[in-house]
Amino acid sequence: MSFLVSAASRKSPLLRWAVGGWTFFILENTVLSENRTYLIDRLGDDQYHAVYGTCSTLASVSIGYAYWKIRTAKSIPSSLILWNKNARPPLVHLAVAWTCFSLGLVMASQVAPKLQIPVSIASQNGATQFQVRCPFDFSDKHRGNNSSNPFDTTTVRGLERITRHPGLWSFGLIGLGQSLMAWNVPLRIWWMGPAAVAWLGGWHTDSRFRRGMGGTLARSYDAQTSNVPFLAMIRGQQGTGCWDQLFLHEIKPLNAAIGIAASSLWILKKIR
């Protein structure tokens, strides 16, 4: 964002607040998790988690306070204003924001049980009957892979095809969508924070797991997946047919449709 603002505006406390909270959050998580073994040996497991929790809480509070400072600021330097506060964002921004929102909400929706239409049609003895069923399909196992072991981490399926960290990136993509509709630079930078957490946090987690710190990352699984969404699929790391397999067999369609609908309604609200 530095190319958007003048040298004087870069000294604005609003910019420091926008960057500071998220930077603190990323750094404290990185430092404490990277030195986890050493700190537990020195402090003990309970004390380590107490320190970790305290630092994460302070970082989260600073992030929330930064947002409040930016939203309630009485004046913002003109060089930090992208467009009028009450104006509609540019159509290009809205289109990309809708894409980010939709991807983020679709990924988040897959965590819930598979939704289904609560009324089905059955045929018995030549007669058509309507049957009422639960709107949640708790029996859905998403057997999109052909592995006899559904928990085999060397077999990639579902959201794992998109990214190794779907929880982080669903949050990050929603933040990116919101940042594209922000009318000033500090607010835009603040909303980019979740994507920075997903990118850097995901990268650091992968790095630790590759070194056997706090978990493991199987080589075959690592070779077929990526941290950045869709990168492994675009590179062909999952072979041919991975797109069809994901969208036709492994995604919960009604959940995804509700996520896209929610994204569309949010964008339409901004257009009006």
From TrEMBL:
<dbReference type="InterPro" id="IPR009915">
    <property type="entry name" value="NnrU_dom"/>
</dbReference>
<protein>
    <submittedName>
        <fullName>NnrU nitric oxide reduction family protein</fullName>
    </submittedName>
</protein>
<keyword id="KW-1133">Transmembrane helix</keyword>
<keyword id="KW-0472">Membrane</keyword>
<feature type="domain" description="NnrU">
    <location>
        <begin position="32"/>
        <end position="230"/>
    </location>
</feature>
<dbReference type="Pfam" id="PF07298">
    <property type="entry name" value="NnrU"/>
</dbReference>
<feature type="transmembrane region" description="Helical">
    <location>
        <begin position="91"/>
        <end position="112"/>
    </location>
</feature>
<feature type="transmembrane region" description="Helical">
    <location>
        <begin position="49"/>
        <end position="70"/>
    </location>
</feature>
<dbReference type="GO" id="GO:0016020">
    <property type="term" value="C:membrane"/>
</dbReference>
<keyword id="KW-0812">Transmembrane</keyword>
